[in-house]
Automatic annotation (TrEMBL):
Entry superkingdom: Eukaryota
Matching CDD domains: CDC_Septin
Keyword Mitochondrion set for record: no
Name of the protein in its database record: Neuronal-specific septin-3-like
Matching PANTHER family: SEPTIN
GO cellular component: cytoskeleton
Biased composition (Basic and acidic residues): 337-346
Keyword field contains GTP-binding: yes
Protein family membership: Belongs to the TRAFAC class TrmE-Era-EngA-EngB-Septin-like GTPase superfamily. Septin GTPase family.
One Pfam family named in its UniProt record: Septin
InterPro entries: G_SEPTIN_dom, P-loop_NTPase, Septin, Septin3
Region spans: Disordered: 1-22, 321-346
Keyword annotations: Cytoplasm, GTP-binding, Nucleotide-binding
Length: 346
């Protein structure tokens, strides 16, 4: 029997190979359906839901709770769910986590807001960043212990801090030593997004000068804030992230009050001379912050937490288990002894 020319025959023309002919033939068969994997991933993600853990750090009175509520248009801050007796300022830093499930257009997200009341409120704030560092490392340790279990869970609960929003008081001058000390230490273990709180207290000229001074201080102290230069994946990412880096720190205004402005109901802060519109980019940069954290970079923030910050912690811990001398506590590169890192009791 003669071999079928279309399938089994060798190349008729010099240089043409059976592989090339097969590729041509497969393209003629029509639609295969490879792109359906996107729909499969979407369905799986919708079933599982999403989770994100955001830490807010800053002195009392900078509007942390208000801004968090404004970001998610829900009462998600610690202060929103506390009684009057609990609202006192703590004597020391105590870290509180509040989780909520937010649903929008069928997308379900578990949001955990980690508040740090007491940070920077004391007369002596030396080393006040250490309890926060221990808390972040404790979440990495908890995830690591779940991961190395022989019978580990199908889906490990993720309490790792994905992003830390650091609130800078609107002084208009430069970063304070406490701001530099905190961000210098914490930028090594978590994604930090600095914001200028209550930016409506500054004029536009003061705001621009302050932002420039803060960027200079960040560079001088080698503080890497999110989005970090070294994690840009390609030229397109670099172009987008350069625009964000040029804008940081975001000058923000938070408000959970609605006002009537030109016939529309808008979130804002009413003053004698008019209304500061929270989502109006000519008034403040809240909309840019929201887009970064939720609409454009949320998954990237989580990926960097997992593949960079947690991975560094995991490798360091596993190396310690193999090499640390008997009777001596292991010291982490961030200067916190192991027994302190493992404890997050405040």
């Amino acid at each position: 029997m003669e071999p079928e020319s279309d399938v089994m025959a060798g190349p008729d023309v010099e240089g043409e190979t059976p592989v090339a002919r097969n590729e041509k033939a497969s393209s003629e068969f029509g639609y295969v359906g490879i792109d359906a994997i996107l729909e499969q991933m979407r369905r799986k993600a919708m079933k599982q839901g999403f989770e994100v853990n955001i830490m807010v750090v800053g002195q009392s009175g900078l509007g942390k709770s208000t801004l968090t509520n404004t970001l998610f248009k829900s009462k998600v801050s610690r202060r929103s769910v506390m009684t009057t007796e609990e609202e006192r300022i703590p004597k020391t830093i105590e870290i509180k986590s509040i989780s909520h499930v937010i649903e929008e257009k069928g997308v379900r997200m578990k949001l955990t807001v980690i508040d740090t009341p007491g940070f920077g409120d004391q007369i002596n704030n030396e080393n006040c960043w250490q309890p926060i560092m221990k808390f972040i490392n404790a979440q990495y340790e908890q995830y690591l212990q779940e991961e190395i279990n022989i019978d580990r869970k199908k889906r490990i609960p993720d309490s790792r801090v994905h992003c830390c929003i650091y609130f800078i008081p609107p002084t208009g001058h430069c970063l304070r030593p406490i701001d530099i000390e905190f961000m210098r230490h914490l930028s090594k273990v978590v994604n930090i997004v600095p914001v200028i709180a209550k930016a409506d207290t500054l004029t536009l000229e003061e705001r621009n000068f302050f932002k420039q001074k803060i960027r200079e201080d960040l560079r001088a102290n080698e503080i890497d804030i999110y989005p970090q230069n070294e994690f840009d994946e390609d030229a397109e990412d670099r172009m987008i992230n350069e625009k964000i880096r040029a804008m940081i720190p975001f000058a923000v205004v938070g408000s959970d009050q609605e006002y009537q402005v030109n016939g529309k109901r808008l979130l804002g802060r009413k003053t004698r001379w008019g209304t500061v519109e929270v989502e109006n980019t000519t008034h403040c940069e809240f909309a840019y912050l929201r887009d970064l954290l939720i609409r454009t970079h949320m998954q990237n923030i989580k990926d960097i937490t997992s593949s960079i910050h947690y991975e560094m912690y995991r490798v360091r811990r596993l190396n310690e288990n193999n090499t640390k001398p008997n009777g001596q506590p292991a010291i982490h590169t961030n200067g916190v002894p192991e027994h302190e890192v493992l404890s997050h009791e405040m």
